[in-house]
Amino acid sequence: MPLTSADFAAIRLTLELATVTTLILLVIGTPIAWWLSRTQSWFKGPVGAIVALPLVLPPTVIGFYLLVAMGPNGFVGQFTESLGLGRLPFSFAGLVVGSVIYSLPFVVQPLQNAFDAIGPRPLEAAATLRASPLDCFFTVVLPLAKPGFITASILGFAHTVGEFGVVLMIGGNIPEKTRVVSVQIFDHVEAMEYAQAHWLAGGMVVFSFVVLLALYASRRRTTWS
Amino acid sequence: MIKKALGFTFALAALPFMANADDIQVAVASNFTAPVQALAPGFEKATGHTLVASFGATGQFYAQIKNGAPFQVFLAADDSTPAKLESEGEIAPGSRFTYAIGKLALWSPKDDYVDEKGDVLKQNTFAHLSIANPKTAPYGLAATQTLEKLGLTEMLKGKIVEGTNITQAFQFVSSGNAELGFVALSQIFKDGQVTEGAAWMVPEDMYDPIRQDAVILKGAANDAAAKAFVDYLKTPEAAKIIESFGYTLE
Amino acid sequence: MIEANFFLGWDAFDLAVELRLPGSGVTALFGPSGSGKTTLLRCIAGLEARSQGQLTVNGERWQDSASGLFVPPHKRPIGYVFQDANLFPHLTVAKNLAYGQKRVDARERRIAQDHAIELLGITHLLERMPNRLSGGERQRVGIARALLTSPRLLLMDEPLAALDYKRKMEILPYLERLHDELDIPILYVSHAPDEVVRLADHLVLMESGRAIASGETSETLARTDLPLALSEDAGVLIKGRVTGHDAAYGLLSVAFDHGQTLRLAHPPRAIGEPLRIRVQARDVSLSLERPTGSSVLNIIPARVMTVAETDNPAHRLVRLDVAGTALLARITRYSLEQLGLCRDMQVWAQIKSVALLG
Q: Known SUPFAM superfamilies for this protein (chain C) (predicted)?
């Protein structure tokens, strides 16, 4: 196998990025999805649209705005600098921020669908059985939405692994910090190192296939028995 | 009027417009974007042909050409890619020539941040130095050669951020995310002077010459429009425009 | 005492009720679908956050919109039995039962788990998942789950509506045991007359979001001025006690209020046992003289009280007084005129059939 240590470093970095991103997305995506699923507010439409924006925007657009916003003249950059965190571009933290935005709809939407499917009735049953709304969320909603959480985690993780445009725009291609597999593949192709490109690209195809297979398998097992 | 296809992502979308025999489809290395746009009106006026330019990375154009992309002329950012195409029999025999020699500059959009000798590199007060990917971009290679000559490779290792190509390396600097970077002089040079900020013109003995070669591709060997464009590049009128963007000629 | 005043407006429907209900026994909320029964029950449970009004249950104030008081549903000591049980699909029967129970302070648990499980006959179901239960079993689990929160008010929303006749008969005895064995006031939503007469002590008639009558069940059923009396199903409920059994003919004697006795074909029951008997208006015929040579078993003297119209112009509903107990007879308008029936006339009522309820 012609893969170099740089390739393996890129694979490791990619897995780290996808794991951290997925965990953060589950934490912030769950309340967003819950709110979207339950609210009757006028803001539901606009918020839903903002969450879905990364689905339709080219990653380069997201990456470009992130680069500008996180730069020294951007509001995010000035905010992070005022906190003493420095600036986010060319850092792992910056990639995480970009990936969270980029993969947000892939986590929020499956969760929202799962919450929608639960409907109000189990919540009412829990309320008449003395469960407070928070209690009910953890003991009824979360277990019932488990298939949604599995789908959301898989999609969020896989989509982050497949991320390219955003990383390209804000990453700076730094080994072991921001050089992920998709960028590494791009570099190999650019440098005409087709054998390595094939190994990595082929690996991505196999990975994506296995992930989707697992997803469909998990969807078949969603009934309670 | 020039039909511009901005960025390589639009190259394929432009294909339907190529049916006209008078259109000439040219793949242009991104660092040569501005000069081609300046050259196009003169060429179209002189010949009546229409120039359809796709801008992108040289390595990517190579992969596309190898896989049948219907370009007639290829203006590369280096001389090795055209040479490789030549040895693989992908070009019209004898059509390869150097259309421009790129010059490297250390640049910052902030006035006076970069001094005329490049000592700012040794002072090492910045967080990020942007360069193009040295593995794939000739300006990136030139940048690492320069740092090597200055003996700064080790010291600055942790501060270097790489753009995929020279355009992105420039973007990192212009957006302020990197304080300074090695860019193509052509990106910051117009009408004989630096347009914004401050730059150090890296002496040409610090890096291998960045020869940018052009070729007529195999499929267009007998194409009059392709030949007309290549011939136009060699005219004194074209040379003047190319030089005004900070390139030199042989 | 339950005082419930509610207003809740929707696009095409609004609920507006002012009710005083007894603080013990079974109160049926009866009416056609869409009459607001379930909405009223949900208001009492606190599941309709938009409702306006006041609610006081045995001295405790749960809602008072004027002062902004709204006790959220999980803080109201109620049990709620949903129409289709609404069990948690991800929990076994045992865990469904435990869900509410463990959220009630141990000192406030008045109903033992074993007792509820035994009462509803679900011991053998404890380890099953809800989707492996029949409709009747689910409903019994739902009732036990609600009971195990030791509610001070049990709300039941058509607990039998989704079940076929056989399942209904399977559960009704359990509900009667609840009524007899546990001292919990129950609000019972139903649109089935047989359930109401069998279970309810108090009856609230609902129509188009209004409570049009509220009173003791047998009295309310005997009223001829309510839509209840219009239908083929009109009838009365008579409470009596077993006085004897004729073993030779298999006939049970049941006496009600003032010494009148009804006989019906039924296996023996304990002397003195209280029973509810339903007599439907269409099963009662009238004659001016005491009929002789009739196969009808129960022929009793009665006095005509009122005559009312029914849903069929050819029929009239006659309310009778049998020594203080009301009886309804649905007869043709033709017969009414032939007999010349009017208020205070003495007649003989022939009761063709009576139904023993539990």
A: MOP-like, P-loop containing nucleoside triphosphate hydrolases
